[in-house]
Amino acid sequence: MRFVRFLLGLLLALLGLAVAVVGAFTAFWLVGPDDTVYAGEQTLTSKGLAIASTPQLLDRHGPTLHVKAHSADGSPVFVGVARDLDVASYLKNTAYTSLAQVEYPIALTTQERKGTAGPLTAPNTLDWWSTKASGPGTQSIAWPIEDGPYDVVIMRADGKEKLDVRADFGIELNGAFLAGLGILVVGLLLLAGGVVLLIPRRRSKTPPASQPVATEVPADQPHVGAGPMRRTALPPTARRMVGVPMVLSVVLVSGCSVIPATDTVDSLTRPAITGDSATAVIKRYNAVNNAANKARDDKLIATIESGPLLRASQAGYTIGRATDKAGKKVDGPFSYTSPKIGAPSYGGYPMSFVTSSGLSSSKDHLHLGMWERESAGSPWIQTFSTAPRTTAKIPDLTGLRVATAADSAKLVAAPQAAATALAQYLTAGAKAPQAGRFTPSPEVNAVLADVAKSKQPISNNAKAIRKVAATVTVPNPPATFIAASGEALVLTTLSSAYLLEAGAGYTFSWGNSPQSAFSAAQYENALTSTTLYQVALAVPVKGGGKIRVLGLDTQLVDAGGY
Fold this sequence. Notes:
Blueprint: H1 2-31, E1 36-38, E2 42-46, E3 50-53, E4 60-61, E5 64-71, E6 77-83, H2 84-91, E7 96-103, E8 107-113, E9 131-135, E10 139-144, E11 150-156, E12 163-172, H3 176-198, H4 236-255, E13 261-262, E14 270-271, H5 275-295, H6 298-301, H7 307-323, E15 336-342, E16 345-346, E17 351-359, E18 362-373, E19 381-386, E20 401-402, H8 405-409, H9 415-428, H10 442-454, E21 465-473, E22 479-482, E23 488-502, E24 526-539, E25 548-561
Parallel strand pairs: 3-7
Antiparallel strand pairs: 1-12, 2-12, 3-11, 4-13, 5-10, 5-12, 6-9, 6-11, 7-8, 14-16, 15-17, 17-18, 18-19, 20-22, 21-23, 22-23, 23-24, 24-25
Helix pairs in contact: 1-3, 3-4
Protein backbone atom coordinates (compact mmCIF):
# COMPACT_ATOMS: atom_id res chain seq x y z
CA MET A 1 0.00 0.00 0.00
CA ARG A 2 2.82 2.43 0.81
CA PHE A 3 4.52 1.66 -2.48
CA VAL A 4 1.35 2.28 -4.51
CA ARG A 5 0.80 5.57 -2.71
CA PHE A 6 4.41 6.64 -3.27
CA LEU A 7 4.35 5.65 -6.95
CA LEU A 8 1.07 7.47 -7.55
CA GLY A 9 2.30 10.58 -5.78
CA LEU A 10 5.52 10.62 -7.80
CA LEU A 11 3.65 10.26 -11.08
CA LEU A 12 1.16 12.99 -10.15
CA ALA A 13 3.94 15.35 -9.08
CA LEU A 14 5.92 14.85 -12.27
CA LEU A 15 2.79 15.15 -14.41
CA GLY A 16 1.70 18.28 -12.54
CA LEU A 17 5.11 19.86 -12.95
CA ALA A 18 5.08 19.19 -16.69
CA VAL A 19 1.52 20.50 -17.10
CA ALA A 20 2.29 23.59 -15.03
CA VAL A 21 5.35 24.36 -17.17
CA VAL A 22 3.28 23.96 -20.36
CA GLY A 23 0.55 26.22 -18.98
CA ALA A 24 3.00 28.90 -17.88
CA PHE A 25 4.84 28.73 -21.22
CA THR A 26 1.57 29.02 -23.14
CA ALA A 27 0.07 31.83 -21.06
CA PHE A 28 3.08 34.06 -20.44
CA TRP A 29 5.46 33.46 -23.35
CA LEU A 30 3.66 31.96 -26.35
CA VAL A 31 0.28 33.75 -26.10
CA GLY A 32 0.07 36.57 -23.57
CA PRO A 33 -2.98 38.45 -22.28
CA ASP A 34 -4.04 39.44 -25.85
CA ASP A 35 -4.61 35.77 -26.82
CA THR A 36 -2.27 36.24 -29.80
CA VAL A 37 0.58 34.00 -30.95
CA TYR A 38 3.17 36.03 -32.88
CA ALA A 39 5.80 34.65 -35.25
CA GLY A 40 8.31 37.23 -34.09
CA GLU A 41 9.42 40.34 -35.94
CA GLN A 42 11.31 39.55 -39.14
CA THR A 43 13.14 41.63 -41.73
CA LEU A 44 11.50 41.25 -45.14
CA THR A 45 12.97 42.60 -48.35
CA SER A 46 11.66 42.27 -51.88
CA LYS A 47 13.24 42.70 -55.27
CA GLY A 48 9.78 43.73 -56.42
CA LEU A 49 7.11 46.14 -55.22
CA ALA A 50 5.23 44.03 -52.68
CA ILE A 51 5.21 41.08 -50.31
CA ALA A 52 2.06 38.99 -50.65
CA SER A 53 0.98 35.75 -49.01
CA THR A 54 -0.39 32.82 -50.97
CA PRO A 55 -4.01 31.66 -50.44
CA GLN A 56 -2.66 28.41 -48.98
CA LEU A 57 -1.13 30.35 -46.09
CA LEU A 58 -4.59 31.36 -44.85
CA ASP A 59 -6.31 28.03 -45.46
CA ARG A 60 -8.19 28.02 -42.14
CA HIS A 61 -10.78 30.52 -40.95
CA GLY A 62 -12.11 31.71 -37.62
CA PRO A 63 -9.18 33.21 -35.67
CA THR A 64 -8.13 36.84 -36.01
CA LEU A 65 -5.02 37.58 -38.06
CA HIS A 66 -2.70 40.33 -36.80
CA VAL A 67 -0.08 41.95 -39.03
CA LYS A 68 2.33 44.71 -38.02
CA ALA A 69 4.86 46.34 -40.35
CA HIS A 70 7.10 49.38 -40.59
CA SER A 71 9.64 50.32 -43.24
CA ALA A 72 13.34 50.28 -42.53
CA ASP A 73 13.84 53.84 -43.82
CA GLY A 74 10.75 55.35 -42.19
CA SER A 75 8.81 55.78 -45.44
CA PRO A 76 5.02 55.21 -45.40
CA VAL A 77 4.01 51.57 -45.59
CA PHE A 78 0.76 49.81 -46.55
CA VAL A 79 -0.70 46.64 -45.03
CA GLY A 80 -3.90 45.07 -46.35
CA VAL A 81 -5.96 41.91 -46.81
CA ALA A 82 -8.06 41.20 -49.90
CA ARG A 83 -9.56 38.40 -51.91
CA ASP A 84 -7.04 36.51 -54.00
CA LEU A 85 -8.95 37.41 -57.19
CA ASP A 86 -8.17 41.09 -56.55
CA VAL A 87 -4.58 40.66 -55.37
CA ALA A 88 -3.71 38.31 -58.24
CA SER A 89 -5.02 40.84 -60.75
CA TYR A 90 -3.29 43.75 -58.99
CA LEU A 91 0.13 42.08 -58.95
CA LYS A 92 -0.17 40.34 -62.32
CA ASN A 93 3.02 40.67 -64.40
CA THR A 94 4.67 42.65 -61.56
CA ALA A 95 7.74 41.53 -59.64
CA TYR A 96 6.95 40.82 -55.98
CA THR A 97 7.83 38.47 -53.12
CA SER A 98 5.50 35.61 -52.26
CA LEU A 99 5.15 34.74 -48.58
CA ALA A 100 4.62 31.01 -48.67
CA GLN A 101 4.91 29.90 -45.03
CA VAL A 102 4.96 31.26 -41.48
CA GLU A 103 6.54 28.89 -38.95
CA TYR A 104 5.59 29.91 -35.41
CA PRO A 105 7.34 31.37 -33.61
CA ILE A 106 10.45 31.84 -35.73
CA ALA A 107 10.73 31.65 -39.52
CA LEU A 108 9.11 33.08 -42.65
CA THR A 109 9.54 31.36 -46.02
CA THR A 110 9.50 33.60 -49.11
CA GLN A 111 9.88 33.22 -52.87
CA GLU A 112 10.63 35.89 -55.48
CA ARG A 113 8.13 36.27 -58.34
CA LYS A 114 9.45 37.67 -61.61
CA GLY A 115 7.77 40.51 -63.44
CA THR A 116 8.03 44.16 -64.39
CA ALA A 117 9.26 46.89 -62.06
CA GLY A 118 5.89 48.65 -62.01
CA PRO A 119 4.87 51.11 -60.74
CA LEU A 120 1.57 50.00 -59.21
CA THR A 121 -1.45 52.11 -58.41
CA ALA A 122 -1.17 53.40 -54.83
CA PRO A 123 -2.90 50.58 -52.88
CA ASN A 124 -4.73 52.84 -50.45
CA THR A 125 -6.69 54.40 -53.36
CA LEU A 126 -8.27 51.06 -54.33
CA ASP A 127 -11.69 50.08 -53.01
CA TRP A 128 -11.53 46.29 -52.81
CA TRP A 129 -9.48 45.72 -49.65
CA SER A 130 -11.22 43.79 -46.86
CA THR A 131 -9.11 45.70 -44.34
CA LYS A 132 -6.11 48.00 -44.70
CA ALA A 133 -3.78 50.43 -42.95
CA SER A 134 -1.44 52.94 -44.55
CA GLY A 135 0.94 55.65 -43.42
CA PRO A 136 4.28 56.35 -41.76
CA GLY A 137 5.53 54.40 -38.75
CA THR A 138 4.16 51.02 -37.70
CA GLN A 139 0.95 50.04 -39.48
CA SER A 140 -1.16 47.20 -38.11
CA ILE A 141 -4.34 45.36 -39.00
CA ALA A 142 -6.52 42.84 -37.18
CA TRP A 143 -8.76 40.77 -39.46
CA PRO A 144 -11.04 37.84 -38.53
CA ILE A 145 -9.98 35.27 -41.12
CA GLU A 146 -12.84 34.44 -43.50
CA ASP A 147 -13.50 31.26 -45.45
CA GLY A 148 -11.99 31.35 -48.92
CA PRO A 149 -8.79 32.39 -50.72
CA TYR A 150 -7.47 35.65 -49.22
CA ASP A 151 -4.03 37.26 -49.36
CA VAL A 152 -2.04 39.58 -47.11
CA VAL A 153 -0.13 42.36 -48.91
CA ILE A 154 2.66 44.58 -47.55
CA MET A 155 4.17 47.31 -49.74
CA ARG A 156 5.21 50.92 -49.85
CA ALA A 157 2.25 53.26 -49.68
CA ASP A 158 3.07 54.85 -53.07
CA GLY A 159 3.42 51.49 -54.88
CA LYS A 160 6.51 52.71 -56.73
CA GLU A 161 9.65 51.41 -55.01
CA LYS A 162 11.14 48.20 -53.70
CA LEU A 163 10.30 47.11 -50.19
CA ASP A 164 12.38 46.72 -47.01
CA VAL A 165 10.28 46.27 -43.87
CA ARG A 166 10.17 44.76 -40.40
CA ALA A 167 7.02 42.67 -40.11
CA ASP A 168 5.35 40.48 -37.50
CA PHE A 169 2.45 38.08 -38.00
CA GLY A 170 0.15 36.81 -35.27
CA ILE A 171 -2.92 34.62 -34.81
CA GLU A 172 -5.44 35.51 -32.09
CA LEU A 173 -7.18 32.51 -30.49
CA ASN A 174 -10.01 33.61 -28.23
CA GLY A 175 -9.54 32.28 -24.69
CA ALA A 176 -6.01 30.98 -25.31
CA PHE A 177 -4.51 33.01 -22.44
CA LEU A 178 -7.17 31.86 -19.96
CA ALA A 179 -6.74 28.31 -21.19
CA GLY A 180 -3.02 28.59 -20.54
CA LEU A 181 -3.72 29.86 -17.03
CA GLY A 182 -6.19 27.02 -16.54
CA ILE A 183 -3.60 24.47 -17.60
CA LEU A 184 -1.15 26.08 -15.20
CA VAL A 185 -3.68 25.75 -12.35
CA VAL A 186 -4.38 22.14 -13.28
CA GLY A 187 -0.66 21.42 -13.24
CA LEU A 188 -0.26 23.04 -9.84
CA LEU A 189 -3.18 21.01 -8.49
CA LEU A 190 -1.70 17.81 -9.83
CA LEU A 191 1.67 18.75 -8.37
CA ALA A 192 0.09 19.50 -5.00
CA GLY A 193 -1.82 16.22 -5.07
CA GLY A 194 1.35 14.32 -5.85
CA VAL A 195 3.21 16.02 -3.00
CA VAL A 196 0.40 15.14 -0.60
CA LEU A 197 0.61 11.52 -1.61
CA LEU A 198 4.39 11.53 -1.22
CA ILE A 199 4.21 12.72 2.41
CA PRO A 200 4.15 9.66 4.73
CA ARG A 201 0.95 9.27 6.73
CA ARG A 202 1.23 9.08 10.52
CA ARG A 203 0.30 5.59 11.86
CA SER A 204 -2.26 5.33 14.65
CA LYS A 205 -1.26 3.49 17.84
CA THR A 206 -1.84 -0.29 17.75
CA PRO A 207 -4.67 -1.34 20.08
CA PRO A 208 -3.91 -3.99 22.74
CA ALA A 209 -4.14 -7.49 21.54
CA SER A 210 -7.41 -9.19 22.34
CA GLN A 211 -7.99 -12.77 23.18
CA PRO A 212 -8.53 -14.98 20.19
CA VAL A 213 -12.09 -15.97 19.68
CA ALA A 214 -12.95 -19.19 18.03
CA THR A 215 -15.36 -18.79 15.19
CA GLU A 216 -17.19 -21.61 13.60
CA VAL A 217 -17.26 -21.45 9.86
CA PRO A 218 -20.27 -23.01 8.21
CA ALA A 219 -19.49 -25.95 6.02
CA ASP A 220 -21.14 -24.34 2.99
CA GLN A 221 -18.86 -21.23 3.10
CA PRO A 222 -15.34 -21.36 1.72
CA HIS A 223 -12.45 -20.57 3.93
CA VAL A 224 -11.24 -16.97 3.61
CA GLY A 225 -7.76 -18.01 2.75
CA ALA A 226 -9.01 -20.28 -0.03
CA GLY A 227 -10.48 -17.47 -2.23
CA PRO A 228 -8.67 -15.51 -4.97
CA MET A 229 -6.67 -12.38 -4.10
CA ARG A 230 -8.64 -9.08 -4.45
CA ARG A 231 -7.33 -5.95 -6.18
CA THR A 232 -6.28 -3.15 -3.91
CA ALA A 233 -8.46 -0.10 -4.60
CA LEU A 234 -7.13 3.45 -4.42
CA PRO A 235 -8.02 5.24 -1.28
CA PRO A 236 -10.98 7.68 -1.76
CA THR A 237 -8.72 10.67 -1.16
CA ALA A 238 -6.32 9.61 -3.89
CA ARG A 239 -9.15 9.02 -6.35
CA ARG A 240 -10.43 12.55 -5.77
CA MET A 241 -6.95 14.03 -6.20
CA VAL A 242 -6.55 12.32 -9.59
CA GLY A 243 -10.08 12.70 -10.94
CA VAL A 244 -10.88 16.34 -10.16
CA PRO A 245 -7.82 17.85 -11.87
CA MET A 246 -8.25 15.61 -14.91
CA VAL A 247 -11.89 16.60 -15.34
CA LEU A 248 -10.98 20.26 -14.81
CA SER A 249 -8.26 19.97 -17.44
CA VAL A 250 -10.67 18.53 -19.98
CA VAL A 251 -13.18 21.32 -19.29
CA LEU A 252 -10.58 24.08 -19.61
CA VAL A 253 -9.04 22.73 -22.80
CA SER A 254 -12.41 22.14 -24.44
CA GLY A 255 -13.47 25.65 -23.42
CA CYS A 256 -10.57 27.22 -25.30
CA SER A 257 -10.84 28.15 -28.98
CA VAL A 258 -11.18 25.06 -31.10
CA ILE A 259 -8.71 24.30 -33.85
CA PRO A 260 -9.55 26.67 -36.75
CA ALA A 261 -11.77 25.10 -39.37
CA THR A 262 -10.27 24.26 -42.75
CA ASP A 263 -11.52 26.44 -45.60
CA THR A 264 -14.34 24.98 -47.67
CA VAL A 265 -14.62 27.78 -50.26
CA ASP A 266 -12.22 27.37 -53.19
CA SER A 267 -13.14 30.52 -55.11
CA LEU A 268 -14.82 33.80 -54.26
CA THR A 269 -17.05 36.30 -56.01
CA ARG A 270 -17.99 39.80 -54.94
CA PRO A 271 -20.10 42.73 -56.13
CA ALA A 272 -18.15 44.84 -58.60
CA ILE A 273 -18.38 47.88 -56.31
CA THR A 274 -20.04 49.12 -53.14
CA GLY A 275 -22.57 51.93 -53.12
CA ASP A 276 -20.21 54.36 -51.39
CA SER A 277 -17.36 53.61 -53.78
CA ALA A 278 -19.64 54.00 -56.81
CA THR A 279 -20.81 57.38 -55.51
CA ALA A 280 -17.15 58.43 -55.15
CA VAL A 281 -16.42 57.28 -58.74
CA ILE A 282 -19.32 59.34 -60.08
CA LYS A 283 -18.32 62.38 -58.03
CA ARG A 284 -14.81 62.26 -59.48
CA TYR A 285 -16.22 61.78 -62.99
CA ASN A 286 -18.44 64.85 -62.63
CA ALA A 287 -15.48 67.04 -61.68
CA VAL A 288 -13.07 65.76 -64.35
CA ASN A 289 -15.73 65.68 -67.08
CA ASN A 290 -16.69 69.31 -66.51
CA ALA A 291 -13.05 70.38 -66.58
CA ALA A 292 -12.43 68.40 -69.79
CA ASN A 293 -15.56 69.79 -71.47
CA LYS A 294 -14.63 73.35 -70.59
CA ALA A 295 -11.15 73.00 -72.09
CA ARG A 296 -12.17 70.49 -74.78
CA ASP A 297 -9.24 68.48 -73.49
CA ASP A 298 -8.87 65.13 -75.28
CA LYS A 299 -6.26 63.80 -72.86
CA LEU A 300 -8.16 64.72 -69.71
CA ILE A 301 -11.41 63.11 -70.86
CA ALA A 302 -9.40 59.95 -71.65
CA THR A 303 -8.69 59.54 -67.91
CA ILE A 304 -12.38 58.88 -67.19
CA GLU A 305 -13.81 57.47 -70.42
CA SER A 306 -12.85 54.80 -72.93
CA GLY A 307 -14.15 52.88 -75.91
CA PRO A 308 -16.88 54.28 -78.17
CA LEU A 309 -17.92 56.79 -75.50
CA LEU A 310 -14.43 58.33 -75.45
CA ARG A 311 -14.39 58.42 -79.23
CA ALA A 312 -17.72 60.25 -79.21
CA SER A 313 -16.59 62.78 -76.60
CA GLN A 314 -13.32 63.54 -78.39
CA ALA A 315 -15.16 63.87 -81.72
CA GLY A 316 -17.47 66.38 -80.08
CA TYR A 317 -14.42 68.37 -78.95
CA THR A 318 -13.02 68.26 -82.50
CA ILE A 319 -16.23 69.65 -83.95
CA GLY A 320 -16.43 72.27 -81.21
CA ARG A 321 -12.89 73.52 -81.78
CA ALA A 322 -13.59 73.83 -85.51
CA THR A 323 -17.00 75.45 -85.38
CA ASP A 324 -16.62 77.51 -82.17
CA LYS A 325 -13.04 78.70 -82.12
CA ALA A 326 -13.85 81.43 -79.61
CA GLY A 327 -15.21 78.86 -77.17
CA LYS A 328 -18.47 80.69 -76.62
CA LYS A 329 -20.61 77.57 -77.01
CA VAL A 330 -18.80 75.29 -74.60
CA ASP A 331 -21.16 73.01 -72.68
CA GLY A 332 -21.90 74.28 -69.20
CA PRO A 333 -21.10 72.18 -66.14
CA PHE A 334 -23.50 69.41 -65.17
CA SER A 335 -23.46 66.38 -62.89
CA TYR A 336 -25.06 63.00 -62.39
CA THR A 337 -27.25 63.15 -59.30
CA SER A 338 -28.81 60.63 -56.90
CA PRO A 339 -27.35 57.57 -58.62
CA LYS A 340 -28.90 54.13 -58.35
CA ILE A 341 -26.31 51.39 -58.55
CA GLY A 342 -26.46 47.98 -60.21
CA ALA A 343 -23.37 46.03 -59.19
CA PRO A 344 -23.21 42.44 -60.51
CA SER A 345 -20.96 39.92 -58.78
CA TYR A 346 -17.74 38.74 -60.43
CA GLY A 347 -15.06 36.16 -59.76
CA GLY A 348 -12.43 37.95 -61.84
CA TYR A 349 -11.64 40.91 -64.07
CA PRO A 350 -12.80 42.88 -66.00
CA MET A 351 -15.76 44.07 -63.91
CA SER A 352 -18.64 46.43 -64.68
CA PHE A 353 -21.43 48.24 -62.90
CA VAL A 354 -24.42 50.21 -64.13
CA THR A 355 -25.84 53.52 -62.88
CA SER A 356 -29.12 55.31 -63.35
CA SER A 357 -28.88 58.95 -62.29
CA GLY A 358 -30.57 62.29 -62.54
CA LEU A 359 -29.11 65.00 -64.77
CA SER A 360 -28.58 68.38 -63.16
CA SER A 361 -28.81 70.02 -66.59
CA SER A 362 -32.15 68.49 -67.60
CA LYS A 363 -35.45 67.79 -65.91
CA ASP A 364 -36.67 65.71 -68.85
CA HIS A 365 -33.81 63.22 -69.11
CA LEU A 366 -31.86 60.76 -66.96
CA HIS A 367 -28.39 59.35 -67.33
CA LEU A 368 -27.84 55.63 -67.85
CA GLY A 369 -24.18 54.63 -67.80
CA MET A 370 -21.86 51.65 -67.58
CA TRP A 371 -18.48 51.75 -65.86
CA GLU A 372 -15.69 49.22 -66.31
CA ARG A 373 -12.48 48.27 -64.55
CA GLU A 374 -10.04 46.22 -66.61
CA SER A 375 -7.90 45.07 -63.67
CA ALA A 376 -7.73 45.48 -59.92
CA GLY A 377 -5.17 48.28 -60.26
CA SER A 378 -6.91 50.26 -62.99
CA PRO A 379 -9.42 53.07 -62.40
CA TRP A 380 -13.14 52.87 -63.01
CA ILE A 381 -13.83 54.22 -66.53
CA GLN A 382 -17.20 55.07 -68.07
CA THR A 383 -17.60 53.16 -71.36
CA PHE A 384 -21.28 53.70 -72.12
CA SER A 385 -23.61 56.66 -71.70
CA THR A 386 -27.07 57.55 -72.90
CA ALA A 387 -29.79 59.93 -71.74
CA PRO A 388 -33.22 58.26 -71.56
CA ARG A 389 -36.31 60.35 -71.01
CA THR A 390 -37.58 60.44 -67.44
CA THR A 391 -40.64 58.54 -68.66
CA ALA A 392 -38.52 55.57 -69.76
CA LYS A 393 -39.14 52.43 -67.72
CA ILE A 394 -35.58 51.47 -66.80
CA PRO A 395 -35.33 47.99 -65.23
CA ASP A 396 -34.70 47.93 -61.48
CA LEU A 397 -30.94 47.78 -60.96
CA THR A 398 -31.21 46.08 -57.56
CA GLY A 399 -29.82 42.57 -57.82
CA LEU A 400 -28.53 43.16 -61.35
CA ARG A 401 -26.36 40.30 -62.67
CA VAL A 402 -24.43 39.40 -65.79
CA ALA A 403 -26.53 37.53 -68.37
CA THR A 404 -25.87 33.87 -69.17
CA ALA A 405 -26.81 31.78 -72.20
CA ALA A 406 -29.68 30.31 -70.18
CA ASP A 407 -31.00 33.83 -69.53
CA SER A 408 -30.83 34.75 -73.22
CA ALA A 409 -32.92 31.70 -74.13
CA LYS A 410 -35.77 33.07 -72.01
CA LEU A 411 -35.91 36.47 -73.74
CA VAL A 412 -38.04 37.51 -76.71
CA ALA A 413 -34.73 38.02 -78.52
CA ALA A 414 -31.13 37.23 -77.69
CA PRO A 415 -29.18 40.44 -76.89
CA GLN A 416 -27.05 40.27 -80.07
CA ALA A 417 -30.13 39.52 -82.16
CA ALA A 418 -32.01 42.47 -80.61
CA ALA A 419 -29.14 44.87 -81.36
CA THR A 420 -28.82 43.52 -84.91
CA ALA A 421 -32.57 43.87 -85.48
CA LEU A 422 -32.41 47.53 -84.41
CA ALA A 423 -29.46 48.17 -86.75
CA GLN A 424 -31.41 46.62 -89.64
CA TYR A 425 -34.47 48.67 -88.68
CA LEU A 426 -32.51 51.94 -88.73
CA THR A 427 -30.87 51.00 -92.04
CA ALA A 428 -34.05 50.01 -93.89
CA GLY A 429 -36.29 52.72 -92.49
CA ALA A 430 -39.68 52.97 -90.82
CA LYS A 431 -41.23 50.25 -92.98
CA ALA A 432 -38.54 47.67 -92.21
CA PRO A 433 -39.86 44.23 -91.16
CA GLN A 434 -37.93 44.59 -87.89
CA ALA A 435 -39.98 47.64 -86.89
CA GLY A 436 -42.71 45.46 -85.39
CA ARG A 437 -40.31 44.06 -82.79
CA PHE A 438 -39.81 47.44 -81.11
CA THR A 439 -42.04 49.75 -79.14
CA PRO A 440 -42.15 53.11 -80.98
CA SER A 441 -39.98 55.81 -79.39
CA PRO A 442 -39.13 59.46 -80.18
CA GLU A 443 -35.39 58.65 -80.22
CA VAL A 444 -35.79 55.96 -82.90
CA ASN A 445 -38.07 58.17 -84.97
CA ALA A 446 -35.50 60.99 -84.89
CA VAL A 447 -32.71 58.69 -86.09
CA LEU A 448 -34.93 57.26 -88.82
CA ALA A 449 -35.61 60.79 -90.03
CA ASP A 450 -31.89 61.65 -90.03
CA VAL A 451 -30.97 58.49 -91.94
CA ALA A 452 -33.69 59.09 -94.50
CA LYS A 453 -32.54 62.69 -94.97
CA SER A 454 -28.91 61.60 -95.43
CA LYS A 455 -29.97 59.37 -98.32
CA GLN A 456 -31.61 62.19 -100.25
CA PRO A 457 -29.63 63.61 -103.20
CA ILE A 458 -27.61 66.72 -102.40
CA SER A 459 -27.52 67.74 -106.05
CA ASN A 460 -30.21 68.09 -108.70
CA ASN A 461 -27.76 66.84 -111.28
CA ALA A 462 -28.43 63.14 -111.65
CA LYS A 463 -24.98 62.55 -113.17
CA ALA A 464 -23.17 64.08 -110.17
CA ILE A 465 -24.08 61.30 -107.73
CA ARG A 466 -23.92 57.62 -108.50
CA LYS A 467 -24.92 56.24 -105.08
CA VAL A 468 -25.98 57.35 -101.57
CA ALA A 469 -26.18 54.81 -98.73
CA ALA A 470 -26.22 54.67 -94.95
CA THR A 471 -25.70 51.29 -93.30
CA VAL A 472 -26.03 50.69 -89.55
CA THR A 473 -24.16 47.75 -87.99
CA VAL A 474 -23.30 46.32 -84.58
CA PRO A 475 -19.48 46.38 -84.42
CA ASN A 476 -19.10 44.73 -81.00
CA PRO A 477 -21.17 42.36 -78.82
CA PRO A 478 -23.49 44.22 -76.47
CA ALA A 479 -23.13 44.24 -72.68
CA THR A 480 -26.11 42.46 -71.16
CA PHE A 481 -27.38 42.36 -67.60
CA ILE A 482 -30.41 40.62 -66.11
CA ALA A 483 -32.74 42.39 -63.68
CA ALA A 484 -34.55 40.61 -60.86
CA SER A 485 -37.66 40.51 -63.06
CA GLY A 486 -35.79 38.48 -65.70
CA GLU A 487 -35.82 41.40 -68.14
CA ALA A 488 -32.51 42.14 -69.89
CA LEU A 489 -30.80 45.51 -69.94
CA VAL A 490 -28.78 45.59 -73.17
CA LEU A 491 -26.18 48.33 -73.67
CA THR A 492 -24.78 48.50 -77.19
CA THR A 493 -23.07 50.82 -79.65
CA LEU A 494 -24.24 50.93 -83.27
CA SER A 495 -22.17 52.37 -86.10
CA SER A 496 -23.67 54.09 -89.13
CA ALA A 497 -21.47 54.28 -92.22
CA TYR A 498 -22.48 56.94 -94.75
CA LEU A 499 -21.32 56.77 -98.36
CA LEU A 500 -21.84 59.19 -101.25
CA GLU A 501 -20.23 58.08 -104.53
CA ALA A 502 -19.51 60.88 -106.99
CA GLY A 503 -20.27 60.65 -110.68
CA ALA A 504 -17.50 60.66 -113.24
CA GLY A 505 -15.79 64.04 -113.41
CA TYR A 506 -17.39 65.40 -110.24
CA THR A 507 -15.78 66.26 -106.91
CA PHE A 508 -17.33 66.82 -103.51
CA SER A 509 -16.34 68.29 -100.18
CA TRP A 510 -18.07 68.60 -96.81
CA GLY A 511 -18.32 72.38 -97.10
CA ASN A 512 -19.33 74.10 -93.85
CA SER A 513 -21.03 71.07 -92.31
CA PRO A 514 -19.86 69.56 -89.01
CA GLN A 515 -18.13 66.85 -91.08
CA SER A 516 -15.68 69.50 -92.29
CA ALA A 517 -14.13 69.53 -88.81
CA PHE A 518 -12.60 66.16 -89.75
CA SER A 519 -11.79 66.93 -93.37
CA ALA A 520 -12.07 70.01 -95.60
CA ALA A 521 -10.58 68.39 -98.68
CA GLN A 522 -12.14 67.88 -102.09
CA TYR A 523 -12.79 64.25 -103.03
CA GLU A 524 -13.14 62.90 -106.55
CA ASN A 525 -14.73 59.54 -105.84
CA ALA A 526 -16.78 59.60 -102.61
CA LEU A 527 -17.57 61.20 -99.30
CA THR A 528 -17.68 59.03 -96.18
CA SER A 529 -18.65 59.58 -92.54
CA THR A 530 -19.23 57.53 -89.41
CA THR A 531 -21.83 58.14 -86.73
CA LEU A 532 -22.09 56.26 -83.45
CA TYR A 533 -25.31 55.49 -81.62
CA GLN A 534 -25.14 54.54 -77.94
CA VAL A 535 -28.32 52.55 -77.35
CA ALA A 536 -29.93 51.08 -74.23
CA LEU A 537 -32.54 48.38 -74.80
CA ALA A 538 -34.92 46.65 -72.41
CA VAL A 539 -35.54 43.13 -73.73
CA PRO A 540 -38.43 41.39 -71.95
CA VAL A 541 -38.86 37.69 -71.32
CA LYS A 542 -40.93 35.72 -73.78
CA GLY A 543 -44.54 36.81 -73.63
CA GLY A 544 -43.55 40.10 -71.98
CA GLY A 545 -44.13 42.40 -74.97
CA LYS A 546 -41.87 44.20 -77.42
CA ILE A 547 -38.31 45.44 -77.08
CA ARG A 548 -38.11 48.96 -75.66
CA VAL A 549 -35.50 51.51 -76.72
CA LEU A 550 -34.70 53.27 -73.45
CA GLY A 551 -32.15 55.72 -74.78
CA LEU A 552 -30.35 56.50 -78.04
CA ASP A 553 -27.57 59.10 -78.25
CA THR A 554 -26.02 60.14 -81.58
CA GLN A 555 -22.55 61.49 -82.32
CA LEU A 556 -20.71 62.06 -85.59
CA VAL A 557 -17.18 60.73 -85.02
CA ASP A 558 -15.42 60.84 -88.37
CA ALA A 559 -15.71 62.14 -91.94
CA GLY A 560 -13.58 62.17 -95.06
CA GLY A 561 -13.60 60.60 -98.48
CA TYR A 562 -11.52 59.15 -101.25
